[in-house]
Each structure stands twice: as structure tokens, then as C-alpha cells.
Specification:
The protein is α+β, with helices and mostly antiparallel strands. It has eleven helices and 13 strands. The chain folds into two domains: about 160 residues, no CATH class; about 130 residues, no CATH class. About 50% of the residues lie in helices and about 20% in strands. The strands form three sheets. Strands 6, 7, 8, 9, 10, 11, 12 and 13 form an eight-stranded antiparallel sheet that branches. A three-stranded antiparallel sheet has the order 1-2-3, with helices on one face. A hairpin with a 2-residue loop joins strand 1 and strand 2.
């Protein structure tokens, strides 16, 4: 098994995405560990090793918007069942005439990742098999979705109560309630997951003596394991050396600029005159294979990083990923709505004495705009928005205490 995965890694190196190659290697390592320590629960160990990969960016990119739509739909239904007038459209809610957005941090992706980690950990502890762990993972997804709907509904109800005159003082407690609601629903999900794992483990332990045919199968499996161990001993290290050398023979990266009309860069953003400045060396390097173009602007105070995109692509990263890569801590903020109705995704980025308020949006030629990359990707993939697009990120310096 491990040998085959290493071979798959070597021959697919230049043909599959990085994350898929990493999965090949992760499962090969898992096979190596299981050959050396056969009593380790393979399902739980595999889950933990997979979660050691940088999955969250991909989760946010591919699952963020669909989860937000599901949460919006579920929250709308729950509020209506409680007698609150609510209408949903995509990721926007209209509650008693007030617009509310289920923004990217509220998608539940982080909670889903944490739930998968808990499931994998419990799978190791209770020695669950692949089928049992898969069942719990499926149930965990449903529990996380419902918990996130419950959390979003409670926050909206809290805000509605805080808007009334007699409870106006509650608005100051909103940050505390926000954290408490998240902790409460996630703790409940973890407790339910623990109970489910215990029940499945109890059923697995209610075993009887193996019939002779099962004993023969176990003997054959043991023989196969011995042969696998010998193959791993003599072939694994040479194949790992080959896998290490493979990246040195990567085909040359094309520096050809993608075909298409040259972009007409904006001269104003949010009513401010902007002028071009030199892009950073790292941006120029990344732009070589980007399906579009990039340009940096300033208005004398704020920085504007603008990307021109010709087609839907995984290479369009959220700005928060870039700032995290530069060592900034990220604090998500609610969607910002300009007087003209333009919506911007917002967060604050801080590092030492440097603080920025970041605004970002992606828009097409017809005026349709998105506040996060996942939303844009799915709308573009389903044909609800047509390219080319501009992705604008504004970095506004802020002083401490602003």
C-alpha cells in the first residue's frame, strides 16, 4: 500500500495539485507507521495526518460559500418558526426590514475542521474502524451545520432584542455573547460526538469467538503484513529518495502573459483618485502564472492592490491569507456597506505597531460584486457572474484605539 502511494506520488508530481500529492505522501507515511506499529488505529491516525495538511484555505475556498448559503437558508427557516419576519437571498438575510449578512467567518468552516479533529482523536482513542469513523464524520457535518444555524439565529435574535429601548444596554455585551454562543454550540457538538463514539465502540467490543474461516483470513492477513513490511523495508527509502529528486526536474514555468485584452485599470476607487506604484517583487513573481494581471495603486494614504482576472481560478487568494503569510494577526469584521450600496468584506490586520483596516471585493463589468473569494468562485462557476473581473483590496492604516 505504502509503496504504491509513493509510486503514485512520483508519477503524478507534475500532473495533480499540490494538495493531492500531499495526500499520497501522507497516506504512504501512515502505511509505514502501521507496518511498524500495527495496533495503532488506522482510521483515526489517517484522519489526524490528513488534518495536519494546510486544509483550511481550501476548505474556505471551496466550502465557504455553499456553507454560508445553507446557514442562511436554515437560519431564515428557524427565525420564521420563532415568529420573526425573515427573508433570505443567497447569503443575505432581511430580518424585520434590517439587512444582515452571513459573512465568511460565519460559514462554520473553522468549526467543521475542529470537529473533524475531535472525531479523528476520538477515533484513535476508541479504536474505531474506517466505516465507523466515516459514519461519525457524516453525522458531525450535520451537527456542525445545525449548530452554526443555531448560533447565527441566536446572534440575530440577540441583536433584535438589543435594538429595543428597554434592552438597549445589551448591545455592549454583544462580543461576549458572540463568543459564548459559539463555545456553547461547539461544546454541545463535541459532547454529542463523544457519546456517538462511545456507543459505536461499545457495539464493536461486543464480539464473539472467530470461526475457523475468519481465523484463516486473519492468518493470511498476517502473512501479507509480513511481506508488506519487507517490501517497505527495502523499497521505501529508495523511493523516497526518488520522490525528493523529482521536484528538481520540474518543467520550466512559462512566463508568457495570458492572452486577452489589456485591462483598463480604474482611476478612482471609493471616490478617491489613485495612481500606480511599483509592485513588490513577490507579486511580480506570482503574476507570471496568474490568469490575468496585477497592479498596485495608492491615493497618498491608502494602498490599493488590484487584480484583473480573466477566468475563475484557485489562484485568487483571500487577502487574509496573504496577510497571515506576512505575519499579521487577523480580526474579522462585519461586511461594510458604502452609502451607494457597495459591499466590502472587511478585517483588521495587526503586527507590532502596524495596523490596517482591510476592505476587499470582487466585481464584474455588470456591477455584480462579491465580498469573498469563495462566493465569487461559485457564482463564476455557475455562470451567475461573467468575467473579466477586478478584485480590489484596500489597506487603510489605522492608529491604535481608532
Amino acid at each position: 500500500m505504502g509503496i504504491g502511494l509513493i509510486v503514485a506520488y512520483i508519477f503524478s508530481y507534475h500532473m495533480v495539485p499540490d494538495l493531492v500529492r500531499a495526500l499520497f505522501f501522507i497516506f504512504a507515511i501512515c502505511s509505514l507507521i502501521l507496518v511498524r506499529f500495527p495496533n495503532i488505529p488506522k482510521a483515526g491516525l489517517s484522519g489526524l495526518l490528513v488534518l495536519s495538511l494546510p486544509l483550511l484555505p481550501s476548505f474556505n475556498f471551496f466550502l465557504g460559500y455553499p456553507l454560508r448559503v445553507l446557514v442562511t437558508t436554515g437560519t431564515c427557516a428557524m427565525l420564521r418558526s420563532l415568529g420573526v419576519h425573515a427573508d433570505g437571498d443567497g447569503v443575505m438575510l432581511l430580518v424585520n426590514g434590517e439587512p444582515t449578512a452571513i459573512d465568511a467567518p460565519c460559514s462554520g468552516v473553522n468549526m467543521l475542521w475542529a470537529e473533524l479533529y475531535v472525531i479523528s482523536l476520538l477515533g484513535c482513542f476508541y479504536k474505531l474502524n474506517v466505516r465507523q469513523l466515516g459514519l461519525i464524520a457524516f453525522s458531525g457535518f450535520g451537527m456542525v451545520l445545525f449548530a452554526n444555524i443555531l448560533r447565527a439565529s441566536s446572534l440575530i435574535l440577540f441583536d433584535q432584542v438589543a435594538l429595543t429601548a428597554q434592552f438597549s444596554g445589551l448591545s455592549k455585551q454583544e462580543p461576549i455573547f458572540h463568543v459564548a454562543a459559539g463555545l456553547l454550540v461547539f461544546t454541545t457538538v463535541c459532547a454529542a460526538t463523544l457519546v456517538l463514539c462511545m456507543k459505536l465502540s461499545f457495539k464493536r467490543n461486543e464480539s464473539v469467538a472467530l470461526p475457523s474461516s475468519a481465523k484463516r483470513d486473519a492468518s493470511l492477513q498476517q502473512t501479507f503484513s509480513v511481506l508488506s513490511a519487507k517490501a517497505m523495508r527495502y523499497a521505501f527509502v529508495p523511493l523516497c529518495i526518488v520522490a525528493t529528486v523529482i521536484p528538481l526536474f520540474a518543467p520550466a514555468t512559462s512566463s508568457r502573459v495570458p492572452s486577452g485584452a489589456s485591462p483598463v485599470w480604474p482611476s478612482q476607487i471609493n471616490g478617491r483618485e489613485i495612481f500606480a506604484v511599483d509592485s513588490l517583487a513577490a507579486e511580480n513573481e506570482f503574476a507570471r502564472d496568474f490568469p490575468g494581471a496585477m497592479k498596485r495603486f495608492t491615493d497618498g494614504t491608502n494602498s490599493y492592490f488590484t487584480r484583473y482576472i480573466r477566468r475563475e481560478t484557485r489562484q485568487l487568494h483571500p487577502s487574509s491569507d496573504c496577510f497571515r503569510g506576512l505575519g499579521f494577526s487577523i480580526q474579522p469584521k462585519p461586511i461594510s456597506v458604502e452609502p451607494d450600496g457597495t459591499k466590502w468584506g472587511t478585517f483588521e490586520a495587526s503586527k507590532s505597531e502596524t495596523h490596517y483596516r482591510i476592505l476587499e471585493r470582487i466585481y464584474d463589468g455588470s456591477g455584480l460584486s462579491c465580498t469573498d473569494v469563495s462566493e465569487w468562485y461559485w457564482l463564476a462557476l455557475t455562470g451567475k457572474t461573467k468575467g473579466p473581473w477586478f478584485a480590489v483590496t484596500i489597506a487603510q492604516p489605522i492608529a491604535i484605539g481608532d
